[in-house]
Structures are given as C-alpha cells and as structure tokens.
Amino acid sequence: MKVVILAGGMGTRLSEETDFRPKPMVEIGGKPILWHIMKIYSFYGFNDFVLLLGYKSYVIKEYFLNYFIHQSDLTVDLKNNSLKIHNNQTEPWQVTLLDTGLHTQTASRIKKAREHLGDRFFLTYGDGVSDININRLLDFHKAHNATITMTSVQPEGRFGSLDVSDDGRVTSFLEKPRGDGSWINGGFFVCDKSVLDYIGDGDDVVWEREPLESLTRDGRLYTCKHEGFWKCMDTLRDKDQLTSMWERGEAKWKVW
After folding, report:
1. Cα–Cα distances in Å, from 68 out to 61, 72, 158, 181, 250?
2. Would you give the DSSP letter of residue 226?
3. Considering only 84-93, 102-111, 176-185, 232-241, which range has the smallest mean pLDDT?
4. Which residue from 185, 105, 98, 110 is spatially nearest to 150, judged by alpha carbons?
5. How far apart are CA 63 and CA 65, in angstroms?
6. pLDDT in tens, 87-140
7. Does residue 145 lie within any of the structural domains?
8. Domain holding 13: CATH number?
9. How far apart are CA 186 and CA 1, in angstroms?
10. What is d(CA 94, CA 30) in angstroms, rounded to the nearest whole number?
11. How many distinct structural domains can be found in the chain?
12. In which domain, by residue range, is 221 found?
C-alpha cells in the first residue's frame, strides 16, 4: 500500500523555522519530522511513499536525491571522477515526489496524485507523530468495510488543571491533563480510492471540509480511537517539546 503524506503547506505558525524550508523538513533530533513519520510506517512494513509537495518543494526533493550519499561512508576520487561507497545506512523506501502547487488546498493535492494511488492507501499530515499501531488501524478499516478510517485522538491540555475549594485551597492538581474529553482528527487515515470521488475539481478543496463532511453524511467515515501518544508540531513550542523528548530518550513515537 502507498503511504501518502501531505507535505506542501507553508507552516505559517512556525515561521521561525519555515522561512527557509517547508514545515515537514523542520528537524527533531537532527532529522526532519517527515523522516520520523516515514519511519513509523516503515516499521510496520509500508515503504512506498507519495509526498504531496508545494511550498519550497525543491528542499524535500534535494533531501531525498542526496539521501543515499548523506547516509553513506564514501571515498571521492577527484582525479578520476569516481565514487566508492563503503557503508550505508539508508532506508528501504521508494519515494514519489509530486509538486502539487504552491497554493493548492489539501484535498486538491490528494486528487492530483490519483494516478499514483492503488485501490487503498494510507494518508497523513507531514507534521504529526504518534505511537499508533498502523496494522491495527488497517485491520479496523477492513473490518468495518469503511471508505475511509480516521484516527481520532485526545490531545493533552496546554495548561495544568486545578480543582479549587470555595476557600481557595487547591484540592487536586494535574499537569497538562487530556483535553475536555472530546476526540479530534489525528490524521493517520486509511482511504479507499473512491474517496477521490468526493473531491471536487479545482485547487481550493479542503480535505477536512467538503470531502470529510460528505463522507460523514453518507455514513462512510469511521474512526479508530487511539489512546496512546500523539502530537502535532504546530508551533515552535511544540517543536521544542518534541526535541526535548527525543534528546531525553523519551520519544514515545519512536516505535522502530
């Protein structure tokens, strides 16, 4: 199965990092968050990727064009214009890089990849990591005969939670508890190719609006709840938190 990753956005809320590179190339522990996402899928044996590019697409293209060399020990013979590879630690990935337009919206990007997709494919965003079990997600999708399965998550709150008595005494404190109990879209979709029929023409179709809303009305959208780790890198604060987790050896999304 193909793994489709939306990697074309500008990441304006992370402008400190994205002025010179696309958001999926912002690094966590010296590796782009895109690499971390691909490693999750690769751990479960899914190594055929389709990257939907837009903003500064050349940065991602150059990264993968040079990936083998960057991961290898080598000798460069300048006199004879030759290259000898001694050792490499590359990945078993096939990566299709599609430039789907600078200002194209998410669903329109997906539709532009039609000819590169099989009858069923994975889909996710290029800025979120999780310890999700990809095989369990796929099994859920098959068991429910769904057109599309969305992973739903409960993100942590941004601030600590207090219970306070009438006289001002704190009776309980929980640092960054789960949100208000509601489930949100966590990405990590499984899609049958028929979802493309729900995407209109043009470059302005947003995945989370008309397509998902229409699929919901038709009873074709299911969700697989994930109660483990999930985090989206939406701000510099999120990036710093993920980096800190990686450096402490506490990167819960590192399933490989």
Report:
1. 13, 6, 39, 44, 28
2. -
3. 176-185
4. 185
5. 6
6. 878 899 999 999 999 999 999 999 999 999 999 999 999 999 999 999 999 999
7. yes
8. 3.90.550.10
9. 20
10. 22
11. 1
12. 2-247
